[in-house]
Amino acid sequence: xxxxxxxxxxxxxxxxxxxxxxLCISIIGWLICVVTISPILIIGIVALLAWLGNGLLxxxxxxxxxxxxxxxLPELANTLARVCEKLGIREIPELYILQSGGxxxxxxxxxSGRHFVxxxxxxxxxxxxxSAEMEFLLGHELGHIKRSHLRKRFLLWPGLLFPxxxxxxxxxxxxxxxxxxxxxxxxxxxxxNAMMVxxxxxxxxxxxxxxxxxxxxxxxxxxxxxxYELISGYPTLSQRVAALVAIRExxxxxxxxxxxxxxxxxxxxxxxxxxxGANMMIxxxxxxxxxxxxxxxxxxxxxxxxxxxxxxTMEMINEAKExxxxxxxxQLGNAISEADIExxxxxxxxxxxxRKGGDYTINPVGDAPECSVHGTLNEQYRSR
Length: 384
What we know:
The chain is built from 16 helices and 7 strands.
């Protein structure tokens, strides 16, 4: 047993802080949804679809995964019962082993009031069914159940959509669960080794140095590492190992600082387990704001370009018209046909088109040429 850990201090303090903040925001969000009614209907449909999807996941687990109990994998089932007893969990969840395809992972889920823990087969093969490493792994997943993280997520859903908060809360929850796993493990070295395997893989676990890896948390800092941390729903593996090493040494982890410039970048980045959607909405909102500024400017610039091109065309028509009138001695009010001015234009009059779709009219001598969209040449001069 580890003197620095006990059942009363397994929860990461930041988890409680972020929970309270998310709860306050969520209460306001749910009240708005109730008053406006329509969001409640949408949320209800989304919740139903999520429940159905989770039901299918549990069905897959029950049908395809191997259940650990007294009849099969009894050592693993006994390890689960022992860890539940350490953590004060009375109702032992169902435990399954699922083929992983080489992935090192485990997870806990809940459906219709029942809890399930799933351990990937590669983890069982790596750690063994009755080891300190497996105790840590099961303790971590049971920490999610003990802290009701699965149920709280629906209650906190509006708050967890708040930018950066959802990921921060998720990281704090994972840190709490690591502490649960460390407390449940019969050997803190086994807990550290379990995390080192997640970081470096099974083939090299005997050659890895946890203390050296833990130093990467404080030594490998900067803008990009800070950005990565902020958009992740999990603490970095080096931070998690550093926290376990701190427990072994009997003190709290000193948190490394972050580059402040990473925060605005993280605010508009997708990623993480919870607030990626909110970050995406902010990104969309910013795009909308920039579009609201840029699109009118673009439209105005396009219109000005079309108007300038039309003005140039009408000036060319007017010059050809004046040349024609001068050569044939036309008087004011005399009509000039398209055929009359085409020799002076150097092209067919019918090919002259306004970029905005207008048609040109030559008009009699003394009257300015005209565009059906932009008006007469004289009007264009006045509007410049």
